[in-house]
Amino acid sequence: xxxxxxPSGNFVACGGMDNMCTVYDxxxxxxxxxxxxRREMMGFEGFLSCCRFLxxxxxxxxxxxxxxxxxxxxxxxxxxxxxxxAGDVIxxxxxxxxTSFVTGSxxxxxxxxxxxxxxxxxxxxxxxxxxxxVCFHSSGFYxxxxxxxxxxxxxxxxxxxxxxxxxxxxxxxGFTSCGLSTSGRVILCGSDDSAVHSWDTLKAKHNGTILQxxxxxxx
Length: 219
Hints:
- This protein is mostly beta strands.
- The chain is 0% helix and 56% strand.
- It has no helices and 20 strands.
- The chain has a four-stranded antiparallel β-sheet with strand order 1-2-3-4, with no helix packed on it.
- The radius of gyration is 18 Å and the shape is globular.
- It comes from Trichonephila inaurata madagascariensis.
- Pfam families: WD40_Gbeta (PF25391).
- InterPro entries: G-protein_beta_1-5, WD40/YVTN_repeat-like_dom_sf, WD40_PAC1, WD40_repeat_CS, WD40_repeat_dom_sf, WD40_rpt.
- WD repeats lie at residues 55-81, 82-123, 124-165.
- Keywords: Repeat, WD repeat.
């Protein structure tokens, strides 16, 4: 359900319904060419939904047991545990300076966490269903979201509130992923209707569907 490369590209972490996070060393392979396992983190009480590397030795995980954990991969131990969501943690995005991160949950909230002490610094509300995706802008001042409530939103950390609401004219499908352009002027969301939608963040104008994927005829 989730995968992440370390910044160096030396390691990849992945996990899902097996309630485990596995880290592979892509530069070290067995006789069949499969990357060797560097570390396996077990003990999750729900599926692994998201993981992000801080560096080659630090990894943050989010899971369906409502927990967020910072791991020391060299020692194979949990350093920090963040608790606060009232439902499955579904999505995660690191702040550009890697001192904080945001998480989205089925409890309809987005929380901003301090990596250094594991404390929740801010909680953002507005969505009416699961927050499936969160994405920081490169400035670190705000982030975008995509939700099952068929909306995408923009939240400003400095203002501590929502500053943008984006919907499609048809309003038929929820959103499973989101991304912001470098300028922040465009927000993109992938939806359950196999399309990618685009909006002008300042005008809150739907720019249309820029890509549509059809699986008909594929066996």
